[in-house]
Amino acid sequence: MQAQTHTHAQEAGATTLPQRVLRNAALHDWAVLAYFVILVICVLMGKGPHWIESIRNLMIDISTFVATLIFGGILGGIMTPTEASVLAVLYAAIVGLFVYREIKWRELPEIVVKSAMVTGAVGLLLGTAGLVSWFLTVQQMPAALIRLMTVVPGSSTVFLFATAVIFVFFGAVIEGLPAVVILLPSLLPVAAGLGIDPIHYAIVIVAAVGIGLFLPPIGVGLFIACGIADLSVDRASRAMLPFVAVLAVGLVVIILVPWITLVLPRMFKLL
Predict the structure, then answer these.
(1) Domain shared by 98 and 140, yes or no
(2) Helix, strand, coil: what percent of the chain each, to 5?
(3) Which of 4, 11, 200, 211 would suit a FRET pair with 242, their CA atoms being 20 to 30 Å apart?
(4) What is the band of 4 on the pLDDT scale with cuts at 50, 70, 90?
């Protein structure tokens, strides 16, 4: 009986995986097709010599092409996120060198050195995050949090609000990426144990980090923006408060209504 059940499970998995691959490949095909449809429209709507400029503007539109490349390639199972990032960098380099010509050949060594420095910093960050995650796992912190949250009424909602507060604070103090890299490996098992959808949980974290980044008066992004605009933090903080309040309301709605974050993945059967 167990062998028969195992066989049925294998058959179900064997039919499910090709279906997912085909569906993702179809999404990639549609993305590429949409890009070239826009290209054709630019040609048809152009008049005289302007259609050449329309094509040129579309081909050097990095945001459009790279978005198609990354999302279509990853969802289609054609490339990994690392491979997609390499192609995106290559495309950006070609456009910067030969189309916009804003990057000079003599600047390439400096760009490579700066990229290596950023990569090294990210590597150190990932190493620190792995150490913190290992320590918390050895101390059974996720399991302890699960046991604690299960005795609290509305545990999943309380945990989501607690997560939002944590990431708003750390997003303001140490910026979003370090906060996510350090804290997420320890909190994600707790969310899974409480039955929270990982996509919903990730959207809550992204929204909370976005609020924290410009949280007056301590947000790292707020200080950077004030430096660029040559504004005092006090003046900018007063102007930011209404926007932060609206973003906070939006975060509460996202937490309380998971349907908002899950409707599109479910519609395209990505869950």
Answers:
(1) no
(2) 85, 0, 15
(3) 200
(4) very low
88 and 144 both lie in a single domain: no
- Asked whether the predicted pLDDT for residue 122 surpasses 90, the reply is no
Does 43 score more than 60 pLDDT? no
Whether the CB-CB separation of 241 and 248 falls below 8 Å is answered with no
Look up residue 195 and give its DSSP letter.
Answer: T
Question: Range of 65's domain?
Answer: 2-103
Q: Residue 166 and residue 183: Cα distance in Å, rounded?
A: 9
| Cis bond upstream, residue 258 (ω within 30) | no
Q: Give the domain-ending residue among 60, 80, 103.
A: 103
* In-domain check, residue 129: no
- Which tens digits make up the pLDDT trace of 153-200? 778 888 899 999 989 988 887 777 777 877 888 788 888 888 899 999
Mean pLDDT to the nearest integer, 77-91: 81
Contact 31, 68 (CB under 8 A): yes
Number of H helices, E strands in the chain: 12, 0
pTM of the model: 0.60
Q: Is 140 left (phi over 0), alpha (psi -120 to 50) or beta?
A: left
Asked whether 54 and 43 are in contact (CB, 8 A), the reply is: yes
| The total number of structural domains that make up the chain | 2
DSSP per-residue string spanning 110-159? HHHHHHHHHHHHHHHHHHHHHHHHHHHHHTTHHHHHHHHHHTSTTHHHHH
What does the DSSP 8-state code read for residue 78?
S
